[in-house]
Amino acid sequence: QLQLVESGGGSVQPGGSLRLSCAASVLSSNSYTITWFRQAPGKEREGVSCISRGADITIYADSVKGRFTISRDNAKKAVYLQMNSLKPEDTAVYHCAAKTGFSCNFNPANEYWGKGTLVTVSS
């Protein structure tokens, strides 16, 4: 069974950067489409970015386009989310999720979820 562990969260000032990592437990992590979701206090969970199995497709929420970059290193069994120009509204718990499907979208129906890492953007 695939296990996902997020890391890299923390506190940062507006305009700063963080790099989140999503580590997968099994060798066949390239068999999964990976999506980053986030949930801010009192708000619904929202999709942030998705990367396909072969990294040939990436999508971003409009709110993060041009600031966030998703990537994956299948040899290291990891997916990354580089977050630049962070804003207070990016404050949330960020989760990575995996599914065996090929399509990249923000449908929350993923088979596997990590526990999340907290990102706080504040001056």
Number of strands: 11
Order of helices and strands: EEEEEEEEEEE
In terms of DSSP E residues, the strand content is over 45%
Number of helices: 0
Intertermini distance: 40 Å
Overall shape: globular
Residue ranges: pLDDT <50 for 5 or more in a row? none
Biggest sheet features: 7 strands, mixed
- Strand-pairing-aware structural class: mainly beta
Indicate the radius of gyration in whole angstroms.
Answer: 13 Å
The overall pLDDT, averaged over residues, is 94
User: Level of helix content?
Assistant: under 10%
Question: What features would you describe in this structure?
Answer:
It is a single chain. By secondary structure, this protein is an all-beta fold. It is built from no helices and eleven strands. Strands 2, 4, 5, 6, 9, 10 and 11 form a seven-stranded mixed beta sheet that branches.
What are the SSEs and their pairings?
Layout: E1 4-7, E2 10-12, E3 18-24, E4 33-39, E5 46-51, E6 58-60, E7 68-73, E8 78-83, E9 92-99, E10 112-113, E11 117-121
Features:
four-stranded antiparallel beta sheet, seven-stranded mixed beta sheet, 46% strand, 123 residues, single chain, mainly beta
Quick structural overview:
The chain is mainly beta. The chain has strands spanning 4-7, 10-12, 18-24, 33-39, 46-51, 58-60, 68-73, 78-83, 92-99, 112-113, 117-121. 0% of the residues lie in helices and 46% in strands.
